[in-house]
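Fold sample X.
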Amino acid sequence: MKIPAVLAVTAILAGCASQPPERRVDASLFNDQWFAAPSERISAADVFAMSAEMREYLATEITPGMKERDVQKTLFDRLYAEGQLKLDYDATTTRNAAQAFAARSGNCLSLVLLTAALARELGLPVRFQMVYVDEAWSRRGGIEFSSDHVNVTLLAKTGIGTRSGLRGSDLTIDFMPPEDLASRRTRVLAGNTIVAMYMNNRAAESLGEPPFNRAYWWARAAIAEDPGYIPAYNTLGIVYKLHGDLREAQRVFEWILELESENTIAMGNLVMVYKALDMTADADALAARLEAIRPYPPFYYFDLGVEAMKQQDYLAARRLFTKHIQRDAFHDQSHYWLGLAYFQLGDVKRAEREIAIAIDASTTSADRELYTAELDRLRATRH
């Protein structure tokens, strides 16, 4: 097995989320002296903070004429059923509630934060949930990201507008099609875990910015907010690795594996750290263990498919991209490359279909523009 020569980050952009037996910060894992002081405010108070524009929206669009018993359904209808805000899904940046409102876009976590902030301002209780979906990976700048999915439920108040004080119906807001959620398992998340997820995403999104000061401080803040949120420790280890602090990265990844002995993301990262430290025997032993748990890395077939395209072996590329899609049905890049393979094989109709799927599955406006331009080019060849 070939260990991928990239680091893996867990983010909502977060794989294992088990809680350690003691939810206390291990301050020995931090090395503040190695990083310049943060140049921006990093505060949990900002995650759900209401802006003046959000309050004006509630005052003018939500609350007029709304009866107290209707608050839950009215907010749901205004935001999503009627689409007043016209929210757009965009995974480029994780925004806090106010930023998502201003931009009218965000990833699933950003839109959950926005919904929760508005609901709380109206006095409506909410519940956050992790939804266990099929493993999904993306790659940016040589770093692989494992994505989790979260949603938010607007809880019905008891004793208000219901007979005998019985509880009304809860309303779950999700940005995944309802039919995809029917049989999914969920786990309730605490509010501080949601905040830690946001901070960890901000850290992960800063990993391409040497000397990694922003990434360090956001990862540190995520751990401080929820010491049981393991993906934030993984991000911290990656920060150390990219910063050149290999021994400290080793310590963090080994610390994770003491808690979660089969955390494959930490294992893969630790293999690379061992190799960088010339700890060949340790790297080989851990790689063999990882292979037994996860025979093929997340992008195994995709990378082979890209290589086949370079070699102009389009039949092999078609087969390999198809195999990757069987593992990750909504990986937009696989559909895009599969479309290109079909085009090279002379099947323009299937090429167009695959690139259209890539457009629908894309999570950033830049990717959508790229795929749309390619689809237009393919369609032009038919005339």
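Fold sample Y, listed below.
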Amino acid sequence: MGMGEMNVMSLIEIDSKLNEIQDFDLLLERILFEARKVVHADAGSIYIKEAIEDAMGEKVEKLAIKYSQNDTTEKELPPGQKPIYSFFTVPITDKTISGYCALTQRLVNVPDAYNLPARVPYSFGKHFDQISGYKTTSILAIPLKTAEGRLLGVIQVINAKDKSGAIIPFSSDDEALISHFANNATMAFQKAQIMRTMILRMIKMAELRDPKETGTHVNRVAGYAVEIYDRWATRRGLSQDDRDKYKDNLRIASMLHDAGKVAISDTILKKPARFTPEEYVIMQNHTLHGSALFDDPQSPLDILARDIAFTHHENWDGTGYPGWVDPSLGTPLRMGEGNKPLGKKGEEIPLAGRIVSLADVFDALCSKRVYKEPWTEEDVLMEIRKLSGTKFDPELVEVFFEILANIKQIQERYPEAVA
């Protein structure tokens, strides 16, 4: 696609869409998608510069792959499924195409990855092509960098296609388009990065109170929640635009599901054993404290965060908590047996609360706690199935098992830190 075909209004529209996205991960995925669309690329990956700990325990800056997309391989999958890819890091050196792009902070245009000029310092790793059976030919790598020249990451798009679908080299027009796109995407990137950093700082504060509430835990729970919702919404035939807006808010709101724990006593939060019945009742109040943080909602994000904080411990069969209570006062609105508030059940529980309930319990069972070792994968999955229709929404459990490969991929992306 040339400059004449991709008019200025189209680029402005893309810029506007990117700036509407608040969540960092969803923005990265969208940046890659739009970058590929701009230059008619069949596949691509987006890398972010991160400080990675090496074998000696020292921090080394590398490129970490965050998302990979491939239209050809995705067409071979059942409808709604996403390709599964491995997470890896790339040194910022001149030995690889993406590393060279990051090192020089300059665009790299490779017409044929299998026939590189002798003068270039980098080589093309054919390993992934051999594993996937996909042939990489043309590559265009562009650095994502701030106006001050600080490197944020690299977009690498693969296999430009002409109107007939034939693979061709990326043109000079493509270079101009992707450069303009990258400059504007960087601004949206920085804004979303600030939002993510602020949320993780809030989580870090909670972690000082509750060692279980880690950045990797909330990132996993949020990742699971988005994948579960996306498949559920696909089943229901929701529009892509509606799904994207909901996912953007859901990921951020899910990360704040246990924010109310900051109001719980350290004696309870840091207890290295299971709670007594009395302590457990006090602990349940974190749902009220969490919803109180959003009791004056200013946006759809606030409403979703409030609903999740308040209802992610409700059970499908009505046996969860806090039930039908006034979130600001904690006083019962409907009474059940044993002089306790009546629990919310079924679709009385907001969808987001039902989703995060499943995501949170799954992650807790898979994780080590002071009072337990992580369960085996087989036992965890058996427990999730067993709780379908009692603790969890049966449809969401079906969805969960449909996307289990994506769930495992999120576990790989956000592994628990080794103590």
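Sample Y note: The chain has two domains: 8-192, 210-413.
Also: DSSP finds 16 helices and seven strands in the chain.
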